[in-house]
TrEMBL record:
Superkingdom of the source species: Bacteria
Lineage: Bacteria, Bacillati, Bacillota, Bacilli, Lactobacillales
Gene: pgmB
GO cellular component, one term: cytoplasm
Reactions that this protein is recorded to catalyse: beta-D-glucose 1-phosphate = beta-D-glucose 6-phosphate
Annotated binding of substrate, by residue: 8-10, 24, 43-48, 51, 77, 115-119, 146
Cofactor: Mg(2+)
Gene3D superfamilies: HAD superfamily/HAD-like, Putative phosphatase, domain 2
A Pfam family reported for this protein in Swiss-Prot or TrEMBL: Hydrolase
Organism: Tetragenococcus halophilus subsp. halophilus
Name of the protein described by the UniProt record: Beta-phosphoglucomutase
Cofactor comment: Binds 2 magnesium ions per subunit.
InterPro entries in alphabetical order: B-phosphoglucomutase_hydrolase, Beta-PGM, HAD-like_sf, HAD-like_SPP, HAD-SF_hydro_IA, HAD_sf, PGP-like_dom2
Residues the entry annotates as binding Mg(2+): 8, 10, 170-171
Any Gene Ontology biological process: carbohydrate metabolic process
């Protein structure tokens, strides 16, 4: 019997990956680095600074910038990304998510956000679902990114349940690995690539009911 739900944001609640991609592609182009959609898959669920490191390594420029310069580049990308987020609204919720969230709230199942994004509170407000969540794990307080289970352990902790009592929803392989590493039940929301190790795999949350997950 499960007692709480832990949601990733990008790829589970809304598809901001395409906006991250636009902002990273522009920044990379200014540095003479080309990235494509296949490469963008590697950035899903990965923190801002780690994403920048991957892009620089991809362009053979891993050691060309100081930490301060990299921070400036990451800030530039984020400024562009936040501009792109301005147009976001409830119409950008992924199919089935709102219905699933409403059903969870009706049954008083606590819901937490476990996203690598520092923009998560802003995005949730734009999507008009911020108030439905009991907590948002602050990525600034974490020592390790996904696939480490830290963010998922922290998420369960904020709603006072054990990881084994929670269901985690993820669209990235690194996220699924983090969920499984702490004994949580993993629902993989598959967009393009297949997700390995997930206990259940769906294309969208409308394929699931709250009741069937609580019984897992
Ligand atoms: C999301 C995205 C990643 C992004 C990360 C950090 O993770 O999938 O591509 O790099 O957040 O975002 P920000 O730059 O806004 O802090 P998640 O965990 O929601 O899938
Ligand atoms: Mg994600």
């Amino acid at each position: 019997m499960k007692k709480g739900f832990v949601f990733d944001l990008d790829g589970v609640i809304t598809d901001t990956a395409k906006l991250h991609y636009i902002a990273w592609k522009d920044l990379a182009a200014a540095l003479d680095i080309e990235i494509d959609l296949a490469f963008n898959e590697q950035l899903k669920g990965v923190s801002r600074m780690e994403s920048l490191d991957k892009i620089l390594a991809h362009g053979g420029k891993k050691d060309d910038f100081s930490i301060a310069q990299k921070e400036t580049l990451a800030e530039e990308k984020n400024k562009h990304y936040v501009e792109l987020l301005q147009a976001l609204g409830p119409q950008d919720l992924l199919p089935g998510f709102k219905e699933f969230l409403n059903a969870a709230k009706e049954k008083q199942v606590p819901c937490v956000i476990a996203s690598a994004s520092k923009n998560a509170p802003f995005i949730l407000k734009k999507l008009e679902v911020f108030d439905a969540f009991d907590a948002i794990v602050d990525p600034d307080e974490l020592t390790k990114g996904k696939p480490d289970p830290e963010i998922f352990i922290r998420a369960a902790d904020t709603i006072h349940i054990a990881p084994e009592e929670a269901v985690g929803f993820e669209d990235a392989q690194a996220g699924i690995e983090g969920i499984k590493a702490c004994g949580m039940f993993a629902v993989g929301v598959e967009t393009t690539e297949p997700l390995y190790q997930a206990d259940l795999r769906v294309k969208q949350l409308s394929e699931l009911t709250v009741d069937e997950l609580l019984e897992k």
